[in-house]
Amino acid sequence: MGEHVLSKEAYTRVADSVRSEGGSATRRGEQRLESGKGLDPLVDPKGFGAIRRSISRKEKRGDHFVLTVGTAMLLETQFDGTSSMRDNVDLAFGSLPKGYHLLKEADNAPLARYDLQNINGVFNDIGDSVLLTRSQAEMDEKIAEQLRLLIPCRAGGDIEEDPHYGLFGAAYLTAAEIVKYGLKSYHFTATDAPGRHETIWSELRRVYGDDVLDIVESNGFQMKKGSLPSTTEIVAELLKRAHAFVIQIGSDSDTARFWTEIYGPERVVTIPTARHIAETEAAIVGLTEGTLDLQGLEEFLVEEGKLSHSSAGLIREAVAGIPIGAQAALPNFGKIPLKGAKFAQKSDLWPIDAKEPAAAKPAVKAGPKKGMWRP
Q1: Which of 235, 114, 245, 129 is nearest to 176 (CA)?
Q2: Got the DSSP string for 138-194?
């Protein structure tokens, strides 16, 4: 693990491999499935114990441990893999370098001070051979490698779809260290269709395994087979620990109505094309962290994201209603450990030379000057 992060060189090696295999970004995962090997355990939702963990990286140096990159920040995206959204993973693979640059490397990059860790997933319909694939929390070229293993079934069918099984994993089968600091991770669902309200036990068990409720309990939640949470209840739980949004592709009114009732209008962001999901996520995260404001957002997307002014303007308009500065208003926002912090034990949350802040007191009482904050 160490200090490795996603580099352009490492991504290029993976992209060259994709091209050499002569197919889409997900060809490797699809070939594995077709050969009867099933899902790769790295993206099988039940693989590796089902719980996805995002933990800060520390290395032993002398008599202490050093934070090598920064405090772990989890960002998860689940993509619609059906019908008109069939190419979402290919688009995500192609835009990965730009999305990473915007979030981690650009001027005023919203997650520059963190160790950015990504989970990517694809949801399909309950009638498809694969309902959900979900990667591990990764921070280097493994992000790209595991995108190759996801399975978009690319089929049509009824209008309602089933992203709530992925939302279930985000809410109940995730352990993100950032939450222990009083902050939240990020979660995005990209889709062009409404979902369903009911969680079906047989489908939940198919995705996460027969012992899913035992695993949920081991992660701190109580749940019974006869009273599984609805989509509304799942999202309400997710919002306790994540800044969660729906990125709606297209302006279908039924889709907007469904997700607005569940997330609230401030968390449903509508854009015209899936080609700009990465830039939209960066805009949302930047506004939420306080590194960007609406006045400077368009310039950021043009200069750092290489978008046209018209495309950047559409994204600015789409995200104008989100809870701006929501992360900056949370406890300990300005007190999390940064790269180089020293810890007595690898499992310690706070550095040797820092007192644990009082969680009840917000670290930031007012927004950053001019909406900009630099680590």
Answers
A1: 114
A2: B-STHHHHHHTT---------S---THHHHHHHHHSEEEGGGGGT--EEEEEEESS-
- Concatenating the DSSP letter of every residue in 288-329 gives HHTS--HHHHHHHHHHTT---HHHHHHHHHHHTTS-TTTTTT
367 pLDDT above the threshold of 70: no
Cα separation values, 268 from 126, 205, 321, 342, Å: 24, 29, 9, 40
pLDDT in tens, 296-354: 999 999 999 999 999 999 999 999 999 999 999 998 999 999 999 999 999 999 999 87
| Straight-line distance from the first to the last Cα atom of the chain, in angstroms, rounded to the nearest whole number | 23
Q: Is the pLDDT of residue 244 over 70?
A: yes
Contact (Cβ atoms closer than 8 angstroms) between residue 123 and residue 80: yes
Residues 6+ apart with CB under 8 A from 144: 6, 10, 11, 14, 15, 93, 96
Q: What is the pLDDT of residue 153?
A: 87
Q: Are 103 and 188 in contact (CB under 8 A)?
A: no
User: Residue 41 and residue 126: Cα distance in Å, rounded?
Assistant: 20
277-301 in b/e burial notation, b at 16+ Cβ within 10 A?
Answer: bbbbbbbbbbbbbbbbbeebbbebb
How many Cβ atoms are within 10 Å of 36's Cβ, its own excluded?
A: 6
What per-residue confidence (pLDDT) applies to 266? Answer: 98
Q: Can you tell me the mean pLDDT for 23-47?
A: 94
Mean pLDDT on 57-73: 97
Coil, strand or helix at 45? coil
The residue-averaged pLDDT of 88-111 equals 95
Backbone Cα Rg of the chain:
20
| 8 Å CB contact between 192 and 85 | yes
